[in-house]
Amino acid sequence: MMSRIVRDVSRLTFPLFAMFGFYLVAHGHLTPGGGFQGGAIIASSIAMIMVAYGIYGLKEKLLSISELAGLFSFLILVYFGSHFAHSAVEEWFKLPVVGPNAGHLISAGVIPLMSIAVGFEVACGISIIVIAMRKGD
Amino acid sequence: MNKLVAALSLVIILTVLALAAVDLHPLGNPAHTEMDTYFLNNAQTELGANSVVAAIVFDYRGFDTLGEATVLFTAVTGVLMVFWGRVK
Questions:
Q1: Which of A80, B7, B22, B49 is surrounded by the fewest CB atoms within 10 Å?
Q2: Which residues of B fall within a CB distance of 8 Å from A39?
């Protein structure tokens, strides 16, 4: 737990950090960025709030389970994103894989889903590393 | 003696590296451009992604990205093994 100034400033800027990270993850197929970079930014926002407020109340087990879930969802998406399953993904998620709407937020088939999965994994993984190093046990 | 050996090996290594650098293929003049041209021309129409980098990373080279995610997972597992895995 740090001083009042650090706590207030980190509390004020935490939503902006996290929003920017989620924006990068969600727009991975449209703009520069993507899962890895956005996940690192989300993890840095978590690290900032952790430095300011301490680590009490953070659930490491939940974070590690979430990281595993991100990796497995990416694995599943890699399988279903291969060539034979483009049509299956199009059927299930009602996402247009190709078409004239390239550039919209909902487009590009499995690419944004994979980006979200990778962002999930990277954010949870890096923040759990930071938490483990801070806690030390 | 040691300094003489060090200076000689430095000269030899520098000479070899300079010869290799002179012999390099010129920049901006790639030998094989078929795959790059294919990606740049077909990424948007085939996948619907505006970012060609995202199209390559997550679809054309998706298996490589899976490997990167696995590398990160392994790194996290190793760090957690160091910090949490102490035998009580």
A1: B22
A2: none
- The residues, ordered by sequence, that sit 6+ positions from B54 with a Cβ below 8 Å of its Cβ are A28, A29, A30, A34, A108, A111, A115
Domain that holds residue B76: 50-88
Within a domain: B25: no
Rounded mean pLDDT, A48-53: 85
Task: Note the pTM of the prediction, 2 decimals.
Answer: 0.72
In chain A, which residues have their Cβ closer than 8 Å to the Cβ of B39?
A: none
Taking the CA of residue A18 and the nearest CA in chain B, the distance in Å comes to 21
Quick one: pLDDT at residue B7?
93
Beta bridge partners of A104: A102
User: Residue A106, by phi and psi: left (phi above 0), alpha (psi -120 to 50) or beta?
Assistant: beta
Structure tokens that stand for B50 in this block? 């505006």
Q: Specify if B35 maps to a domain.
A: no
